[in-house]
Specification:
- With about 190 residues, the chain is an alpha/beta fold.
- The chain has a single domain, classed as Spore Coat Polysaccharide Biosynthesis Protein SpsA, Chain A, CATH 3.90.550.
- The chain is built from 6 helices and 9 strands, in the order βββαβαβαβαββααβ.
- It has a 7-stranded mixed beta sheet with strand order 5-4-1-6-8-7-9. A two-stranded antiparallel ribbon has the order 2-3.
- The longest helix is centred in the middle third of the chain and has 12 residues.
- The chain is globular.
């Protein structure tokens, strides 16, 4: 698929990394490459711009020259929705692809299919991946219009991605092997040993 002028990407790297001993997962190397660059390589053919959501080591992310690096508007590592919220004034495209930085085995088939399903069903505001018997909420495609009420949702004290998705017209998109094998978060240091 060629670069789509109506799609932008966001890689979520803004977590605290508590299960990684506070290590910045997006900068963790996997097979000789920082994890964020693997996600960026998946999104680049699909998106006109790829944004990076990060709350630490901003200069290290900027030095990779993958796209704009943006910090949460809210203090205190308030979760992936806060990372998405900071993008609201910057996203210009009709659709947004969302990926976590900690799925280095993910294939490009996942965001491609999520976007295809979103575009094929006009009533949908959001699609997300399902595979290996579980939902993967941070592998998602959404319409820009879905972001309109996100700040209000966060202002009410909500943080759960699943709960926000429930307020939108959404659909889980099922993946089976081999694509589903890449739907695995690397949350612990031993996961990154290849």
């Amino acid at each position: 698929m060629d670069t789509d002028e109506d799609v932008e990407g966001l890689i979520l790297c803004g977590g605290y990394g508590s299960r990684m001993g506070g290590e910045e997962k997006g900068l963790r190397e996997f097979r000789g490459r920082p994890a964020v660059t693997i996600a960026a390589a998946i999104l680049a053919p699909l998106c006109r711009v790829v944004h990076i959501s990060a709350n630490r080591d901003l200069e290290a992310y900027r030095a990779l020259d993958l796209g704009p690096v943006r910090r949460d508007l809210r203090d205190g590592f308030q979760g992936p929705l806060a990372g998405l919220e900071q993008l609201v004034p910057h996203v210009k495209s009709d659709a947004l692809l969302l990926l976590p930085c900690d799925m280095p085995l993910l294939s490009g088939e996942v965001p491609t299919k999520l976007l295809s399903v979103l575009h094929s069903e006009a009533e949908l505001q959001l699609t997300y991946a399902r595979g290996n018997g579980r939902d993967h909420f941070l592998c998602a495609a959404l319409r820009r219009s879905a972001l309109q009420e996100l700040s209000a949702f966060l202002d009410e004290g909500h943080r759960a991605v699943r709960a926000w998705y429930a307020t939108l017209a959404h659909r889980a998109v099922d993946f089976s092997p081999p694509a589903s094998l890449g739907l695995r978060n690397f949350n612990h240091p031993q996961d990154w040993i290849s």
